[in-house]
Write a structure and sequence with these properties.
single chain; mainly alpha; 17 helices
Length: 423
């Protein structure tokens, strides 16, 4: 109880949790609203554009805030990180335009994608400012910024949708809301700690090169999550895309919930791996994995009995024929969450090259499996089954890499102990 009270009194922790939670879960409420107010077709178009933009955001977020905040020796200036986000954001815009043209999207789908790309551009740029705030121990300001941005954007979205009943026009609310808070809150506050400006120095290219692997992991991990969605868009209808997005949403929430387990444990795991021996490290990892698995299995049981009833009430659509499919999506979420957890553990162990191999292999398998199954059976259940297979394969690959690296770590430490004893 005392620990809980201590956390709630810590403004940095409290506001960060609030901000991350709101920023992570608002898409769920948006899909519910759009499905009920605009229809399942509009929900399918919106969901596809939203998550495709999320995939391209990994280009805009190149390197990520963790890389910036962990630069304790200040190898790169703050404005170098800000400049990086400007450059990668522009690249993100160009790549997404080419992507839309190659796929021959109609004006509605292309407009939705580009609106969300602009929104992600602003979000990525803000992330470099969040890095400055976090380095100066003002994580509370980051949480407040996210909370205000999402809240204002949602209000604008709802107002526009009530007036125009058009998701393309309504989605501009996110560009408006995020840009507004960027200029009246994020930039002025960041300037109190550091000089904010755009510069193109040789250090920018060095930073691009140094953070390449981190970008690769982020891009491939979110690509794996969206490959099946992309194939559904290619081969099936907007209506099926809407159903697909709704049914895999619980999977995404289950996967996301694992981050609330693993993120607070990063420093503890790092200390145990580097200071207290591999056995204690492995024990903690095993406890975390069993905890997530147990939680996931409980969610599967609950979902089987009442999941489709809840979805039918919330979305106003009959999901009774998808009881098993929804339960399998919870299993997919468990696999996805465990994969992310193992990736974090491998990063703590500094096993980056093997992770790269694992992500590339998972991406190739996901492409082959999704395309083959959806083309062969051409229906929603096939798409959901393909998604489950993809998440399962990724987990098995990451698990194999983890076991190999743990075995090698045991072996290396045994050799060091033998040399120490001989000396």
């Amino acid at each position: 109880m005392n620990k809980i009270l201590a956390i709630t009194k810590n403004k940095n922790v409290l506001w960060n949790v609030i901000g991350i939670s709101i920023n992570s879960f608002y898409s769920l409420f948006l899909v519910i609203f759009i499905t009920r107010f605009n229809g399942i077709d509009a929900s399918g178009q919106f969901s596809f554009a939203f998550y495709i933009a999320s995939m391209f955001q990994t280009i805009g977020n190149y390197g990520g805030r963790i890389f910036q905040v962990s630069d304790y020796n200040e190898k790169y200036e703050d404005r170098t990180y800000v400049s990086l986000k400007m450059v990668t954001g522009i690249i993100m815009l160009i790549v997404s335009i080419i992507f839309c043209i190659i796929n021959g999207y109609d004006i509605i789908k292309m407009s939705l994608i580009m609106i969300f790309i602009l929104y992600r551009f602003v979000e990525s740029f803000s992330d470099s400012l969040y890095g400055i705030l976090q380095k100066h121990d003002n994580l509370a300001a980051v949480g407040k910024s996210l909370t205000i941005k999402v809240t204002i954007s949602l209000v604008i979205f709802f107002i526009l949708d009530f007036i125009f009943k058009n998701v393309v026009i309504s989605s501009l609310g996110f560009v408006i809301g995020f840009t507004l808070i960027l200029f009246i809150y994020d930039i002025p506050l960041s300037r109190k700690y550091s000089e904010i400006g755009i510069c193109f120095k040789p250090e920018l290219l060095k930073l691009l090169k140094e953070s390449f692997l981190v970008f690769t992991f982020s891009f491939l991990s979110i690509m794996i999550l969206n490959i099946t969605r992309y194939i559904v868009d290619m081969k099936l209808t907007n209506e099926i895309q809407g159903y697909f997005s709704i049914l895999i949403m619980p999977s995404s929430l289950i996967a996301l919930s694992t981050q609330f387990v693993v993120q607070p444990m990063i420093k503890t795991l790092s200390d145990k791996y580097n200071l207290h021996g591999i056995k204690k490290f492995v024990k903690d990892v095993n406890i975390m994995m069993m905890g997530v698995s147990g939680f996931g299995l409980l969610c599967c049981l609950i979902t089987y009995f009442i999941g489709v009833d809840i979805l039918s009430i919330v979305y106003g659509i009959n999901f009774m024929n998808y009881r098993f499919s929804l339960t399998f999506m919870i299993m997919a979420g468990i696999f996805s969450g465990l994969s992310t957890m193992l990736s974090t553990v491998l990063t703590i162990m500094r096993k980056l090259n093997m992770q790269f191999v694992g992500y590339v292999l998972s991406t190739l398998i996901s492409l082959i499996v999704s395309f083959s199954i959806i083309v062969m059976y051409n229906n929603l259940n096939a798409a959901l089954f393909a998604y489950l297979i993809c998440m399962c394969c990724q987990f098995l690959i990451m698990l194999c890499i983890y076991f190999i690296q743990i075995h090698n770590a045991h072996k290396d430490r045994s050799i060091l102990e033998e040399k120490y004893n001989e000396a």
